Amino acid sequence: MAGSNPSNGFVRAMRRVYNLIGFQKGYNFTLWFVFAGALFGFTLARLQYLSIGGNFKEGSAPGEWFYLRKGHERIGITLHLATILPAGFLVVFQFVPLIRHKLLLFHRINGYVVTLLLLLANVGALMIARHSFGGEFETQVLTGVLAIMTTVGSILAYINIKRLQIDQHRAWMIRTWFYAGSIITLRIIMIISTFVISKAGGYYQAMPCDQISFMFEDDQSGFRDSFPACLAANGTMDGWVAVNANFAENVAQVAASLNVTFGTAGWLALAMHAIGVEFYLHLTPKEGNRLRIVSYQRQLEAGFRHPGSAGITSDRWGDADPWQPPSQGTGAKVAKSTGSEENITLNS
User: Fold this and answer.
1) What's phi and psi for 330, nearest 5 deg?
2) Across 107-224, where does the E strand assignment appear?
3) Could you say which of 33, 201, 238, 342 has the lowest number of CB atoms within 10 Å?
4) How many CA atoms lie within 13 A of 143 on its CB side?
5) What tens digit of pLDDT does each residue of 270-301 get?
6) Of 32, 30, 99, residue with least CA distance to 342
């Protein structure tokens, strides 16, 4: 059969590669390679930012260091980077089938560590939301919504695995990290948007004069020439001026272009990821059904009430038809088709 013994040498070689790490389907490996690979690469590229006063100070967006260099916001950015970067590195291994099947203890411990790091990272993000990338209201709300979505997703994944509802644990862990991964797509959209609004013109952001002066650092003459209103007595209200958002001009205008587009890019990226992950989950029902049967078998062995639906499932908490366990022959066939016992738990 051509599907089981492909004549294409590249396909055979790739099958050997993804079978080696536990993947049985090429499309699953491709999706893991693209999305987990993007998160892994993004994380590795930003590990240098763990040096808050060094690499992060020099590499952060213009004007960000003005607020992040001191006070609770310095604590917030330190907490955020010190937790989200290790979490982004470690979570990639949670989705490797070989580790789930053969290294169950590592998978459980790593799951706890990743979840704790993500929750702490959310705390740090909320601490810096007031001024991050201009601190516009839509940006603050975006940060809060993303923190809520990933926190709730993590809690639901944890509850389900404690109830041995493996299919829902899988779904909520995938959702949670798809939501978190929107920060990568956000940056792509933001960079494109800055060029668009710079070309279109007419976009401005209100910025405090002391922040603008801080961005110009040693070029105070350039600051005075570009923003004379900041030096005029009573020339502005509370020392704020409107800055033209233009990525190709001075440092303050570059900062304004990033700040103006950040919130919009974030909402668009989050919507894309939230919709996309639901498409993926609905297009892979066989995997969900297989894990539902595994959940039923384990819950039955553990003596749970409502085996197959002991966790948070739509038939118990919604109006879905009651889930019916398969016949014994079907369950054995599904278990046999996995090639090994399914172990994807945080802690069972």
Assistant:
1) -65, -40
2) 204-208
3) 238
4) 21
5) 999 999 999 999 988 888 898 999 999 999 99
6) 99
